[in-house]
């Protein structure tokens, strides 16, 4: 346990905080032109030295998609006979969504008790720094890792990982491994070590009821002129009712697999709104094992300064969050045909997909191995989530590279990762470094039967 004590001491001494402060100082915003220079500097000045310090040969690769930034890959081969671990992280962060509290600068790491504030602390710089540090501690203690290591960094996760699928397809030999272990997203809660196996996918659905150029007097035309806002409200209610229940079977998965149900049986989720969502399922099942259809935006007329007029146009943006197993072959046609059947053929439907849903089976041997390795170093149960609630490019690793995927998150749901005051909790970082060190340390002795 001496190595795990070193991991704890690395956080307690302030060394980890100092290192994280350096990473946060790079404004690596991927959706802004000015962020590209910072991203390149982050690859050259932070990640490349970190990987070479692990004995990796480092290569930088252009993105096959011109929208996306470059990829960075580090490879350390100790022996062809040893198992190979693939790790992943993303160098980019989101832009600023508003003012931070107490005059905080998002690019300066500041501590307030156990909260370490700064953009990227939780998503994803703090998380990949924990994993890089764990690997470094392991290498220093052993003089070797005991396995082969590959580490992939992308620079456009916050804009949907453009080009990652194609890059992985082109570089299958470079990225070939036995399993993926990575960190992103939140754990179940701040106090619960968590392992999740995949991610829900996301599809944006735009509804547009554009009936006439302008408004029409509600007194002179009310009752004989179709109101696009009323039409849109009814159309949305036919897709998802006022209690959050999807009304179109084709937008749901065929079933909740028994293995998923069993994995979530002991997972406790605080559901703040009683009666919301499909009540046939428990809160954890609804959050991690099922689909949701959310209304993200509505627009008709001017609610701040309404006038006595029937609006000429109404629009809405919805989002389908879906789990693996859902048929999303043509969501546009599904929604369009459903609305037409409800008497709303005048509504234009457009969709845009982001990450695809995917997950490693709950009973995969790598999952069993990882749970045993983590259970050996913690005194509390490790939560196993079949899917992360949000979106990640997990499908690239399961579908393109054919790997089992193990995600060990080092953040928590209240971290505000896409909002002002993003922060990392010091106790979670400390425990995360212990867990990552233990899991990587156990990888060298994983049973040969698990290897590809």
From TrEMBL:
<keyword id="KW-0645">Protease</keyword>
<dbReference type="GO" id="GO:0046872">
    <property type="term" value="F:metal ion binding"/>
</dbReference>
<dbReference type="InterPro" id="IPR051458">
    <property type="entry name" value="Cyt/Met_Dipeptidase"/>
</dbReference>
<keyword id="KW-0479">Metal-binding</keyword>
<feature type="domain" description="Peptidase M20 dimerisation">
    <location>
        <begin position="215"/>
        <end position="342"/>
    </location>
</feature>
<protein>
    <submittedName>
        <fullName>Acetylornithine deacetylase/Succinyl-diaminopimelate desuccinylase and related deacylases</fullName>
    </submittedName>
</protein>
<dbReference type="Pfam" id="PF01546">
    <property type="entry name" value="Peptidase_M20"/>
</dbReference>
<dbReference type="GO" id="GO:0008233">
    <property type="term" value="F:peptidase activity"/>
</dbReference>
<dbReference type="Pfam" id="PF07687">
    <property type="entry name" value="M20_dimer"/>
</dbReference>
<dbReference type="GO" id="GO:0006508">
    <property type="term" value="P:proteolysis"/>
</dbReference>
<dbReference type="InterPro" id="IPR011650">
    <property type="entry name" value="Peptidase_M20_dimer"/>
</dbReference>
<dbReference type="InterPro" id="IPR001261">
    <property type="entry name" value="ArgE/DapE_CS"/>
</dbReference>
<dbReference type="InterPro" id="IPR002933">
    <property type="entry name" value="Peptidase_M20"/>
</dbReference>
<keyword id="KW-0378">Hydrolase</keyword>
């Amino acid at each position: 346990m001496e190595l795990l004590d070193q991991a704890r001491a690395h956080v307690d001494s302030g060394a980890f905080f100092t290192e994280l402060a350096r990473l946060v100082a790079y404004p690596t915003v991927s959706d802004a032109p000015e962020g590209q220079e910072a991203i390149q500097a982050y690859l050259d000045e932070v990640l490349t030295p970190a990987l070479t310090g692990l004995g990796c040969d480092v290569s930088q690769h252009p993105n096959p998609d011109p929208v996306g930034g470059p990829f960075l890959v580090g490879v350390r081969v100790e022996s062809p006979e040893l198992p190979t671990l693939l790790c992943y992280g993303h160098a980019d962060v989101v832009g600023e969504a508003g003012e931070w509290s107490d005059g905080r600068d998002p690019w300066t790491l500041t501590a307030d008790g156990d909260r370490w504030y700064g953009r990227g602390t939780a998503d994803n710089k703090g998380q990949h720094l924990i994993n890089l540090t764990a690997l470094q501690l392991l290498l220093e203690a052993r003089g070797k890792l005991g396995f082969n290591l590959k580490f992939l960094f992308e620079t456009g996760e916050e804009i949907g990982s453009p080009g990652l699928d194609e890059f992985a397809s082109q570089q299958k030999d470079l990225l070939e491994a036995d399993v993926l272990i990575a960190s992103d997203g939140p754990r179940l809660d701040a106090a619960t070590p968590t392992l999740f196996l995949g991610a829900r996918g996301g599809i944006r659905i735009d509804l547009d009821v554009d009936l006439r150029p302008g408004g029409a007097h509600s007194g002179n035309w009310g009752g004989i002129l179709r109101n696009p806002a009323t039409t849109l409200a009814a159309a949305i209610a036919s897709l998802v009712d006022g209690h959050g229940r999807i009304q179109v079977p084709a937008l749901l998965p065929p079933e909740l697999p028994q293995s998923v149900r069993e994995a979530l049986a002991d997972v406790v989720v605080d559901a703040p709104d009683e009666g919301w969502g499909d009540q046939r399922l428990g809160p954890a099942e609804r959050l991690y094992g099922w689909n949701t259809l959310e209304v993200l935006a509505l627009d008709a007329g001017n609610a701040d300064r309404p006038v006595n007029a029937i609006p000429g146009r109404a629009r809405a943006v919805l989002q389908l969050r879906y789990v693996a197993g859902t048929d999303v072959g043509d969501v546009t046609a599904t929604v369009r045909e459903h609305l037409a059947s409800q008497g709303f053929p005048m509504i234009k439907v457009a969709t845009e997909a982001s990450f695809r849903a995917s997950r490693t089976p709950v009973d995969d041997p790598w999952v069993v191995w990882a749970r045993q390795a983590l259970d050996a170093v913690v005194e509390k149960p490790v939560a196993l989530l079949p899917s992360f609630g949000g979106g990640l490019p997990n499908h690239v690793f399961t579908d393109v590279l054919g790997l089992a995927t193990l995600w060990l998150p080092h953040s928590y749901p209240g971290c505000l990762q896409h909002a002002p005051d993003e922060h990392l909790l010091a106790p979670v970082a400390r425990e995360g470094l212990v867990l990552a060190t233990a899991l990587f340390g156990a990888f060298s002795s994983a049973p040969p039967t698990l290897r590809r």
